[in-house]
Every structure is written in structure tokens, then in C-alpha cells.
Amino acid sequence: MKKVILFVIMAILSAVAMAQNDEKRQAAYDLVSEGVKLYDDDKYEEALKKFNAALKLDDTYASTYYEKALALRAMDNNKEAKKTLEKSLQKVTWGNIAMNYKFLGDITDEEGNARKALDYYWKATELVDGDNNSQMHTLAYNMGVAYSNLAKQEPDSLVAHRNRAANCFMLSLRFRPTHASSYYGYYSMVASPEDAPASGGYSSALGMLGWYGFFGGGHHMIEKMAEMPDKWAAVNLTQEEMDSLRPQTRIAFESVRESAKREPSEYGRLYDMFMYAIPKVAENFTEEPAPVCMAEDLYEEFLYPLYAKMIREGVFETFCHVAAMRIQRSAIPNMNWIEKNDAAVKKLTDMLNEGRYFDPDVRLEQKYGRVPSVANVSSEEDAHARNEEAKFACLYFLNHDYGTREMHKTMQFIFSWIQASPDVSVQVGNAEAKWFTKETTPCLIAYMAHCALYQLENNTKEMTEDVYLDAVTDMLNFYIDNKEKIGANAELDRLVELGKNDFENFEKEVRANFPKTE
Fold first, then answer.
1. What letter does residue 95 receive in the DSSP assignment?
2. Among candidates 398, 506, 507, which has minimal Cα distance to 451?
3. Which alpha helices (H) appear in 1-113, and where do they start and end?
4. Residues 6+ apart with CB under 8 A from 237
5. C-alpha 338, offset from chain centre
6. Model confidence over 459-472: pLDDT tens digits?
7. Span 65-77, pLDDT tens digits
8. What letters, b where the CB count within 10 A reaches 16 and e where it falls short, cover 266-290?
């Protein structure tokens, strides 16, 4: 009986302690909220007292340390701010500790230690809520800044660090596509003469300049943009360097130089450059989704399809005027044009406000290829007439997620077109019967799409062992990427593992299945 009473007393005491802890935690939380309001009113010392009082009640809450560090930093006491954040890494048990790591990275980078700052940032990426676009954007942007600083601190790895910085700035834009500093940061990483030809930088730099001009009004570097056309045009490349440029890069470089030779219009040289050069680079994206596979798809699937969209809808000229006006050079002529064309400005604004054009998930639908105009093909004549459309449909299917909304229509078209086409011969035999079930029909279409694309591009109906091996490999890659949506298949899983662990035997087994029975 005494044991029972003792357990009851212990349970009561535990409950009381938990209630007291909850009260302390709530009181600490309230103090933090009061401190944040004081901080917002620039009352940093008073805010600091609130945060210190909160820590006495509960020293396990991440935001208390974060807000205290903000107040200390506002008081020019970075040393204590850093100590506060370092202490939080040992004490915190609840709250968003990822932002404390991020803040530590900011201070450390400002101290000139970009490499250590990146250690903090990478730790933050492991802890941050991936659905919090605001925090993901801020973290990605600050990592871009740190990598660009690291390029200066470690010049032997300059190009590698710049590439990493550019990728971080692009990631930042995926979470906040109107962020002027990210556009400028990306531009700065790819536009330098020493590595722009190798990185394809002139094309991406041109695209970034446009968006930076459009969103960058008030940015501290915006006036520097007026110097860009002449600086770019002054770059001299040897013929060998010119020949090494990627097609999009060469178009951008040559069109900027061509525009720089002309007498500037009343709207300014930068406006002229945008109006002349960007449409030339965007020409391959005049259809939506983009019909051509580009090497630098990371930025191009975001930049140039949207430029092409503006050109098609008649609002690109407006975009250029707004960008030129915000650069504050030739501002008055551009402002006058804008005031006289308010309907065009409204049309541009409405278009950019449509969520789909800045939605990263929707932009993935514009990656490669094109959705076919029909779902079914009924005759040899119709199939032959649609050969070009079939190429783009095969590209679209092979390079998009199976969940993309137009994939079912594209899959139906490919199957229907192959059945009717007199120009391709895609064989499916006994070996494939184990792979392709009702559930894995999309994998069958991926296999067929690869074979048909090869035959169209090479003007042949022949199936070789090499083509077969490549088609099976493409099909397995499609399966890996879409397994969650399609469902698991034991035979395909076996092939995937064999390919990963023993490619020689994988190749031997696949080749043994060829030639197949028709």
C-alpha cells in the first residue's frame, strides 16, 4: 500500500513539475514576443533585457538566442552575438535551430572566414524546413554570397567556387523569383571575361541582366548596369575561343556586341541591348513548352521560356522600358513611354502575377520537348506527317516527371504514332514481357520513345544491340525517377541493382536479349 501511495505522490509531483515547466516556457515565450516588439521599435537595450529574462526562465528555446543575437548585432556587438548563437547550439531542445546556424554563418562570413561560414550553412540545410520557402531562399542566397567570397579567398579554386555560388543564387531564385540580389549575384558569377566562355556565361548573364534591371530598382548596384553593354562589348575573344562557345552563348555574345556598335536610341543603350539581344537568344523558346534541349537548362528553363512568352504576348517591349527606367539612366524617356502605354504595363503586370510562370513545379513542365497536338494517330500518312511532332513528344516524355499533367496524352500519342508509323520499327519481344506489365506501361513507352527517337534522328528503321542497350538504360532511368508514381516491379528492380553493382554483367544480360522475337 505504501508503494502505491509513493507512486501516486511521484506522479502528482511529476505532473506539477510539468505544469510549472509549461508555465515557465509560456512566460519565456511571452517575454520573447515583447522583446521582438521592442526590437522592431529600435529599442535594442530594452529588447535585450526581455531576451535575457526569457533565458533565465527557459534556456532551451532557439528563437530566444536568435532574437538576442539580432539585438546585440544591432548594437554593433557581433562578438557577443556570435557567443550567444554558439551557446544556443549546446542548449536548444525546441524551436527552429536551423536559423541559428544560418545566423552564425552570416557573422562568420562577415569576419572573412567563408569556409567556416559554409560549414554552418550546410548544417542549417540539414535542419531547415524544406517547405519554408522564405528560409530556404535566404539560406541559399547567403550560401551563394559565401561561395563568391570563398572564390576570392581561395583563387586556385575560383571557377569551382563561382559555379557553386551561381547554383546557390539560382536555388534562391527558385524560392523567391523576384529577388534582385540573387539575379545580380548570379550575373556576377558568370559574366567575368576569364571564365564566361567556358561556363556559357554570356547567355545566362544576358538573361540575368534583364531580370535584375526589372526587379532591381533601388538596389545598391543598379546604376552600374548602365556600364555593362560597353564593358561586355570590349571583351576580345580569339577565333578559337569563339569557336568553343556554346550556341546560346555565342548568339548572346555576338548580339550584344552588334547592339553596342549602333548609335543608342533615346531609351538608352541598355534598353537597346535588351530589345535586340534577348529575342535572339530566346528564339529557340518561341513555343511553350520549350522545343529544344539546351545544355544549360538550369537557368534557361526559367529565363528564356518566360522571355519568349513575353515576346509572344506582346509585352517584352514594356518589360525592357521598365527595366531601363529602373536603372536610372535614360529614365525620363522610358518613363514617358510607360505613362503613354499603361494598358501594356497592366498586361505585363497581370502576366507576371500569374503564379504558373514563377512556379518551379510548373517550370519543370517546360524542360524539353513539346506536348503533341493530338492524342491519337490513325493512318500511315498522318503518322509520317507528324514525324517532327513525334520527336518532340518523345523528348518530352523521356525528360519529364510522370506526374506532369500532359504526360498521359503524350504517352497515348507516342504509342498510337509508333503503331501507325511507316518510318520506325520498335520491337518488343519475350525478354520485355517480364518488365512491362499494366502498371509499368509508362516504362514501355519510355523504351519505345528512345528507339523511335533514334530511328527518326538517324533516318533508319534498324535496331542494333547498341540502340537496344541504350533504350533499356533510358527505360530504367525513367523507372528510377518515377517508381513512386508507377509502382515497384521486381524484375526492373533487379536490373537496376545489377546495373549499379555489376555493369559488365548487366550489359551482357541485356545484349543477350537481342535480337528479339517480333
1. S
2. 398
3. 2-40, 44-57, 62-74, 78-91, 98-110
4. 197, 245, 253
5. 32
6. 888 888 888 888 88
7. 999 999 999 999 9
8. ebbbbbbbbbbbbbbbbebbbeebb
